[in-house]
Amino acid sequence: MSRSFLSRRSFLLSTAACGAALDAFSLPALLAQPAGGKRLRLASIGVGGMGSSDLESLSSHPAVDVVALCDVDTNNLGAAAAKHANAKKFADFRRMLDEMAGEIDAVNISTPDHTHAAAAMSALNCGKHVYCQKPLTHDVHESRQLRVVAEKTKLVTQMGTQIHSTTPYRTAVKLVQSGTIGKVREVHSWSSKTWGYDGADPVSAAVPATLDWNLWLGTAQEIPYADGQYHPANWRRWYDFGGGTMGDMSIHILDPVFTALKLTAPTTLLSKSSAAPKRSFGMQNETHFNFPGTEFTTDSLKLTWYDGGKMPDSKDWPLEGADGNRLSLPEQGSMFIGEKGYVLLPHVAMPQLFPVKQFAATPIAAAPNGDHYHLFVDACLGGTPTTCDFSYAGPLTEAVLLGTIANRFPGDELRWQSEAMTIPNHDPADALLRRRYRKGFEVDNLS
User: Fold this and answer.
1) In the CATH hierarchy, which fold is given to the domain comprising 8-164+373-388+426-433?
2) Fewer CB within 10 Å: N-end or C-end of the chain?
3) Which one, of 388, 394, 327, lies nearest residue 354 by Cα?
């Protein structure tokens, strides 16, 4: 057992301590603090790779004090500590929350996907504001629970889809909602990335001295360490830890689609993907969603996702440029098909209207740019609420994760009953909505 393992009893005591701290420091009073002169004490969980970038962006806000750093890899921890010498260092986020409950205001989480919910919920249980990298969670059940608890506590939350706040995506949302192309009847979204694996089983190897493998696994079931397969970068392609290309990129690319069209939950999903391996996501996916209509769509909306080199059939799309030459689709992006025209939104670039000649005189007013990280800090200090909070991020992540489940059963239509949170017509898919956490890593409000 890892030297850093925290017992279930100790963690329950930690959770109780967090609850007591939350009761002692009235949450409404905490949230009502004025921005002027107020500082935000930040703890960072996962400080390597994207975590390093997140930490740099959040700590660049002049009102942020980094008080704690947590990572299961001592190399990552050492590099972060060199930039934040006054922060306390931890390998186990549970121990960090246990020991520093009264010294932390907000937590950012940039771990592999399978640890997102456990860390985020533990922080919410302690009354801490939470910034969590995308996708919000690894399982549908986790997304639902994080949304429910975040709404109940009224804590500030933000999912790390940074492009959500940038000019291109904000402009696309504004353009689609303006009615310029009429009500949208269909959307196609795609990514050329390929997060999958269909080779020989990984070969076990000795765990590096710098890595706490037990804590890296966390809630996931125990498997041997293997060089180059999981830590630090390739975990996305494995069912146990990531979401494949869809979990990685559709959470970005479908974000403006959900925001612009105010989509709710899909009613049915059908995958036309390549056969999925036993342990890893398929490398070419085509996933069809049906959504109920909204004020910005026709009576219903068809959404199709493609990845790994699959692309939409665009032969009937009016993609001719001003010079009459046909334009190629970008490697990643979305096409909104409306009653009066088309909006192409590359990832990440400004939206374009088609047919070009039809909309030659139609201006596209750029929306203001926003700093996704600083918007979170400002909200924690009493400023404007975030726009990618868990009330929004939870349902978006649910839909994406349902897509990753559908891709494991190509050809089988899944009927999703959102309120009951069940797939009643497909028991194997329904069983994937919620994981069983490894003993000793249970979390209140999730397990």
Assistant:
1) Rossmann fold (3.40.50)
2) N
3) 327
φ and ψ of 159, to 5 deg: -90, 145
Distance CA 73, CA 91 (A): 7
Strand bridging mode 184-191 / 332-338: antiparallel
If you count them, how many residues does the chain have? 447
306 SS3 class? strand
Q: How many whole angstroms separate alpha carbon 399 and alpha carbon 418?
A: 10
Bridge pairing between strands 184-191 and 297-307:
parallel
**CA max distance for the chain:** 70
- Cis amide linkage into residue 355, ω under 30° from 0: yes
Total-model pTM: 0.92
Q: pLDDT per residue over 247-271, tens digit each? A: 999 999 999 999 999 999 999 999 9
Q: What does the pLDDT look like over 384-437, one tens digit per residue?
A: 999 999 999 999 999 999 999 999 999 999 999 999 999 999 999 999 999 999
Crossing angle between the packed helical segments 50-59 and 372-380, to the nearest 10 degrees: 50
Q: What does the block give as tokens for 373?
A: 């990280």
Residue whose token pair is 């934040």: 84
CA-wise closest residue to 131 among 113, 110, 155, 157 = 157
Whole-number Å distance between alpha carbons of 170 and 157 = 19
